[in-house]
Design a protein that fits this description.
With about 120 residues, the chain is mainly alpha-helical. It has helices spanning about 5-25, 25-35, 40-55, 60-70, 75-85, 90-110.
């Protein structure tokens, strides 16, 4: 980060970034934006962190999460602390994730029912 950027300016820029992300209307648009904004390594790191969140919510032990995802136990612990006492972002995203999964499950179930 540039040393000459003021704390206030960083906060405004971060708020603007959050607003832009919130206004993108679908996953493909967000993915394209992230691809342009981030390095491939940053995207992989974020995706790895996100893959840990549902597993923690299921109660999976840290070491097993590490074995399944390859994410270090230290990082898993950091994510768990954020999930429990962070800013609430992981928790909000997890709720949306569960809502999406529930919607998909209902849709698949209704398609499987015989029409009649």
């Amino acid at each position: 980060m540039k040393a000459h950027t003021s704390q206030q300016n960083r906060a405004q820029t971060r708020a603007a970034l959050a607003t832009v992300l919130a206004r993108l209307d679908n996953a493909d648009a967000v993915d394209a934006f992230l691809e342009d904004l981030c390095t491939p390594g940053e995207i992989v790191a974020m995706a790895d962190r996100w893959s840990v969140v549902p597993l923690l919510a299921q109660g999976m032990p840290y070491r097993q999460i590490h074995e399944v995802t390859g994410v270090s136990v230290t990082t898993v612990g950091r994510i768990a602390r954020c999930l429990e006492g962070g800013a609430g972002g992981y928790r909000a995203a997890l709720q949306e994730h569960h809502r999406d999964q529930h919607h998909r499950d209902e849709h698949q179930h209704s398609e499987a029912l015989p029409s009649g």
